[in-house]
Design brief:
single chain; seven-stranded mixed β-sheet; 12 helices; 17 strands; binds pyridoxal-5'-phosphate; 402 residues; alpha/beta; four-stranded antiparallel β-sheet
């Protein structure tokens, strides 16, 4: 069997149809979209078409609400910094503890600059307390930034409801929808979301292209100033080939959204059920009733995620783990810690993230190899003794985090 790619929340394969659509923009269609002559005009028309394709996928009211950026990170930064610049009297930001570093690191930086950051906690399935959120909304808050879906657990936040609440309190609302766009249906014109971030490489378009959706009428200050590209909202000559690729990828995502929520979900469910039934002391994390259809984050208790990944890699399976080897200690991810997953499980979480390119045959193969990998690693684990965990596993080793 060929190698099996189950790490689509990290990045996706560029769809071959998307590649074909992009190629002419490296050769004969090389013009600058801002030029008046025919070399530029054709490219300008291609950008317009791509803007429409993005608009359709997210259900935006108008194509002028689509601003092309270089990545999801740039879109997140632009949204938050724009809100602060546009409302200099407002010094507070509301976000969540489980955001991607694209938001978390920026907020840490802003905190050092004197802003007050409210980080909403999550419960043990990764959901927010909306009553607490509501209590924090006030007219010192410049912006709420809450992700649509979590990149590790797949848990979906009720962003439409949260945007409504922010709007009632007169507060801007941004959502990092990098993991959600193309996986679940959206219709932004029916929501009060002011800004939304997209990243091309999570939906079968290339890396290095993103979108900031900016609702018409939302106060805005550009991050990059210079030329008049993107109606003066994001200077810099457009990455035309990647914009065209992203447009095509959005069109294809729309065609496959039903497939994603039926077939891809069925493969994900089979994978999760097959593994958790065959492997004792394993369980899926996150909000199992309300999460992305392609994501399954499974905790294998009493072993290390990194070790599982290495053995999976040896048999041709690519997935990812929530832990990262930093300064000699394997720290569970901030998402697992926020959900209060016991450290004996949080260390051993593996994220399987599927795409429409996976097959049920691949899934059955993964189910057939995982139990032995886990059993072999447990033989080496200080938390494991023969057929089960040691008497008091939490005392076998001191936790590496408080
Ligand atoms: N936000 C989320 C939720 C993500 O998963 C990622 C990528 O992993 C990003 C933002 C950053 O996107 P990009 O790699 O395009 O900067």
């Amino acid at each position: 069997m060929d190698d099996i790619y189950l790490d689509n929340n990290a990045t996706t394969m560029v769809d071959p149809v998307v590649v074909d659509e992009m190629l002419p923009f490296f050769t004969e269609q090389f013009g600058n979209p801002s030029s008046i002559h025919k070399f530029g005009a054709g490219v300008g028309r291609a950008l317009k078409k791509a803007r429409k394709q993005v608009q359709n996928l997210i259900g935006a009211e108008h194509d002028s609400e689509i601003i092309f950026t270089s990545c999801g990170t740039e879109s997140d930064s632009t949204a938050i910094l724009s809100a602060l610049k546009a409302q200099p009297d407002r010094k507070e930001i509301i976000t969540t503890v489980v955001e991607h570093p694209a938001v978390l690191s920026l907020c840490e930086y802003l905190e050092k600059d004197g802003y007050t950051i409210h980080r909403l906690p999550v419960n043990n399935v990764g959901q927010l307390d909306l009553a607490y959120y509501k209590s924090l909304l006030n007219d010192n808050v410049a912006i709420v930034s809450a992700m649509w879906a979590n990149n590790e657990s797949g848990t979906i936040f009720p962003v439409a409801e949260m945007a409504e609440m922010a709007n009632e309190a007169g507060v801007m609302f941004h959502t990092d929808a990098v993991q959600a766009v193309g996986k679940i249906p959206m219709n932004l014109k029916e929501t009060k979301i002011d800004m939304l971030s997209i990243s091309g490489h999570k939906l079968h378009a290339p890396k290095g292209i993103g979108v900031l959706y900016l609702r018409r009428g939302t106060r805005y200050r550009p991050l990059l100033r210079g030329g008049h590209q993107e109606r003066g909202r994001r200077a810099g000559t457009e990455n035309a080939a990647s914009v065209v690729g992203l447009g095509k990828a959005c069109e294809m995502a729309m065609e496959h959204i039903e497939f994603e929520n039926t077939q891809v979900k069925a493969m994900r469910d089979r994978l999760e059920q097959g593994i958790t039934e065959a492997v004792p002391h394993s369980f899926a994390t996150g909000d199992l009733d309300n999460r992305l259809p392609n994501t399954s984050d499974i905790a294998f208790e009493y072993i290390e995620g990194e070790a599982i990944l290495m053995l999976l890699n040896k048999v041709g399976i690519a997935a990812s783990s929530g832990s990262a080897c930093t300064s000699g200690s394997l720290e569970p991810s901030h998402v697992m810690r926020a959900m209060d997953i016991p450290y004996t499980a949080a260390h051993g979480t593996i994220r399987f993230s599927l795409s429409r390119y996976n097959t049920m045959e691949e899934i059955e193969y993964v189910i057939s190899v995982v139990p032995e990998i886990v059993a072999n690693l447990r033989k080496l684990s200080p938390y494991w003794d023969g057929d089960g965990p040691v008497a008091e596993p939490e005392k076998a080793f001191a936790p590496t985090y408080a």
